[in-house]
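re: the backbone from monday

yeah here it is again, tokenized this time
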């Protein structure tokens, strides 16, 4: 996704290796780590120069497990924010919420919406979607005042953020089958 007013590019995903660097042989390499520990399956967002691919910054989610993933990315040029959507199976997220969200017994994973600023990649906020089963936030898109989200879950009930902000109810009351959902939030919610 392009940056507002520049040709720089944002990329997101999950990488693994030890150690992990962004850059090519002629450019400074940017380390991607988990507080100094190199680990497998590190979710990240990066800003690269469109001119030569030089990394401007790389921010990792700060947790790693074999199933943690960034699955979607959207740039809010109006607010100079990046929203990353994904799935996490362990750890504390960098925006003050923990895996397990409202259901600390969950062992199958939670979805997340991770918000960073575009200039330096600093974390601005985020939300976890949590329930008793697996919850995945698969896609994110932005319009001037709204963040659009799409995902799936197999819990009887799941919550995005706190219980009063966004509640999902599965068509299957037992939550044994996955249900697809989409929704919209005010653009200022995750910050």
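seq for it, each position gets an aa:
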């Amino acid at each position: 996704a392009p940056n507002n007013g520049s040709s720089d590019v944002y990329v997101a995903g999950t990488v693994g290796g030890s150690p992990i660097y962004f850059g090519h042989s002629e450019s400074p390499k940017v380390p991607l780590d988990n507080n100094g520990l190199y680990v497998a399956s590190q979710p990240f967002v990066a800003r690269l120069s469109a001119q030569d691919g030089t990394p401007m910054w790389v921010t990792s989610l700060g947790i790693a497990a074999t199933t943690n993933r960034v699955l979607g990315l959207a740039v809010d040029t109006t607010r100079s924010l990046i929203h990353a959507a994904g799935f996490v199976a362990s750890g504390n997220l960098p925006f003050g919420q923990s895996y397990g969200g409202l259901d600390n017994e969950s062992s199958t994973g939670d979805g997340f919406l991770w918000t960073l600023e575009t200039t330096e990649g600093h974390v601005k906020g985020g939300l976890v979607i949590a329930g008793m089963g697996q919850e995945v936030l698969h896609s994110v898109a932005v319009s001037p005042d709204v963040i659009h989200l799409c995902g799936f879950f197999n819990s009887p009930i799941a919550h995005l953020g706190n219980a009063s902000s966004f509640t999902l109810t599965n068509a299957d009351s037992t939550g044994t089958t996955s249900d697809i959902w989409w929704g919209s939030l005010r653009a200022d919610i995750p910050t």
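The chain has no helices and 14 strands. The mean pLDDT is 75.
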